[in-house]
Design goal:
The chain is an alpha+beta fold and about 350 residues long. The chain is built from nine helices and 17 strands. The chain has two domains: about 240 residues, Aminopeptidase (3-Layer(aba) Sandwich); about 90 residues, Peptidase M42, domain 2 (Elongation Factor Tu (Ef-tu), domain 3), CATH 2.40.30.40. Helix 1 packs antiparallel against helix 2, helix 1 packs antiparallel against helix 4 and helix 4 packs across helix 9.
């Protein structure tokens, strides 16, 4: 299981506020953690973080996990001092009322709560309907617009309140697990590879703005120009009631990372992952996507320049895009092991053309 330093990093990382477009806290945390283990750690103008082993090597492997999270942005401050907002990323509006949030300002975080009309004042027909985001607001305790504007501004980003908590020895809940757990796997894999004396170039990238269109991966993959790319994101855990496994597959917390078969996944690279997992006895689960998934950094990396051999590893996640996403550390640990062994075995002379040259 992960050591104390890794778990301390995980908690700090999960508790960072990093809404899409303003990921500064998570970027700083990611870079500081990897600086002692990598030859080079840098950021780019998008906010991506790039940690490098062997920057001079011609054969380059890229690992990507996004550390942006869903959230909001302030669009209007009312005369009563209430903050109205837009969604930033895919929001489930059923989960939003009564949430605790932090407004991210240049002077620091400002706490608030998301409010709506009390149930007692709703008409009977309204009580069974989902409340629109336009009918919610953020209350920071201000009594007027002038008072609110002394603390916050239109355009400020909003993140869910930090809430990381271990439920037992292996499972935890947190906001932003999609996809800080993937970026955590990237960081831990880079740390492990730093001990292995690899000769190829390895680029561990914490990407930004995935939730609003895979934007960070698009820029960073073009800059790295890898021959091989791994996307590490979350996937749906289906070990819950009323999720049809005949449609969504069978994936459970603690069963290992999900290895995917779809148009986003190079079959040659996929076999190398499975070979490494079996040889070193790492648990994994299988998924068959019904189409090119397109919803993760993997798809964006694959289509960079003239094409990249890519593979997606998914960490099973319950309650995705909520404030209480749940993952199992055993799945993250197995993902780190599979990635480490697969990458450490690469020589740079592999052919990833399906069917061979």
């Amino acid at each position: 299981m992960f050591g104390r330093e890794s778990l301390k990093f995980l908690e700090r990382f999960m508790n960072c506020a990093s809404p899409s477009g303003y990921e500064v806290e998570a970027a700083k945390c990611f870079r500081e953690y990897l600086a002692p283990y990598c030859d080079e750690v840098r950021g780019d103008v998008m906010g991506n973080s790039i940690a490098v082993l062997n920057p001079g090597a011609k054969f380059r492997v890229m690992l990507a996990g996004h550390y942006d999270e869903i959230g909001f942005q302030i669009v209007y401050i009312s005369e009563e001092g209430l903050l109205y907002f837009r969604q930033n990323g895919g929001i489930d509006k059923l989960n939003i009322p009564a949430s605790e949030v932090d407004i991210i300002t240049p002077k620091g975080r400002v706490p608030g709560v998301i409010g709506k009309k009390p149930i007692h004042l709703l008409k009977p027909a309204e009580r069974d309907q989902a409340v629109e985001l336009s009918d919610m607001w953020i209350d920071i305790g201000a009594s007027s617009r002038a008072e609110a504007e002394r603390s916050v501004s239109v355009g400020d980003y909003v993140a869910m309140r930090a809430n990381f908590r271990m439920l037992n020895k292996t499972r935890f809940v947190s906001k932003g697990t999609d996809d800080k757990i993937g970026a955590f796997v990237v960081a831990e894999t880079m740390r492990e590879l730093s001990k292995r004396g690899v000769k190829i170039g390895v680029y561990g990238v914490g990407t930004v703005q995935e939730e609003v269109g895979l934007r960070g991966a698009h820029a960073s993959a073009f800059g790295v120009d890898p021959a091989v790319g791994f996307g590490i994101d979350v996937g749906f855990a289906t070990d819950l009631p009323d999720i049809p496994k005949k449609q969504w597959g069978d994936a459970s917390l603690g069963g290992g990372p999900i290895l995917n078969r779809s148009c986003d996944n190079n079959p040659v690279l996929g076999e190398l992952l499975r070979k490494a997992a079996k040889a070193h006895k790492f648990a994994y689960q299988e998924s068959a996507a019904h189409r090119a998934t397109g919803g993760t950094d993997t798809a964006c990396i694959q289509l960079t320049r003239a094409g990249v051999a890519t593979a997606l590893l998914s960490i099973p996640n319950r309650y995705m895009h909520s404030m209480v996403e749940m993952c199992d550390l055993r799945d993250a640990e197995a993902a780190v092991g599979i990635l480490t062994e697969t990458i450490a075995a690469l020589t740079g002379r592999e052919c990833f053309i399906p069917g061979g040259r």
